[in-house]
Amino acid sequence: MDALAQKIVDAHGGLETWSKFRSLTAHLAQGGALWGLKGHAGKLDDTNVTVGLGEEWASHHPFGSGDRVTLFRPDKVEIEDGMGQVLDSLEAPRSSFAGHTLETPWTEPQLAYFAGIAMWTYLNMPFLLAAPNVVSERLDDWHENGETWQRLRVTFPKEIATHCTVQTLYVDDAGLLKRHDYDVEIAGNTAGAHYVTEYVGVQGIKFPTKRRIYPRQPDGQAMAEPLVVSIDLDRIALR
User: Fold this and answer.
1) Which of 44, 18, 48, 12 is nearest to 236 (CA)?
2) What pTM was computed for the model?
3) What is the rounded average pLDDT of the residues 212-239?
């Protein structure tokens, strides 16, 4: 790994500790303009997520009303009832977003796909920096709100389903994440600036529990509004 990438991974608990676990579960309280814009206001406001660590999969429960559960994998998304019966599914989900813009509504399986790639990426970061074929490169420092943050460009291989191929991490002097930039390819390449705060320690790993995502301008500056997505996490457990 790049030296800065190694510093970031170590600051969050280190690979030795991370490698002891296979999955992570957390409770999510979510908000922001995106969900209503995509036709699913309230559906994931109060939910739980479980993600694979390393292996890419994610499950949200409940998914809207009742006891519905999602299962996301890069090649397929399913929505099941509480008895495990498949209610809806989508094969090759990424291709279903062709031609989408920010305003294009999503089907329920498309929502499950987005929620899956997003939470899997967020909760596996920054340990994805050590994943096979993930390439990182140091960028110039960034100045924001009187602070100086180090930046790392991260390039993902095609076998990892995430927001986009190239993303940027911003970290403080201790190596903890402050901001995470990406373009949401499945929503018309909408540019986002994702801020993370309020770290907690869980079983030897550090996690930010407050996430706020805003539009990102061409010069890299974040807009103050609208709030695109908010995510507050608690009850984090590693298994």
Assistant:
1) 48
2) 0.98
3) 98
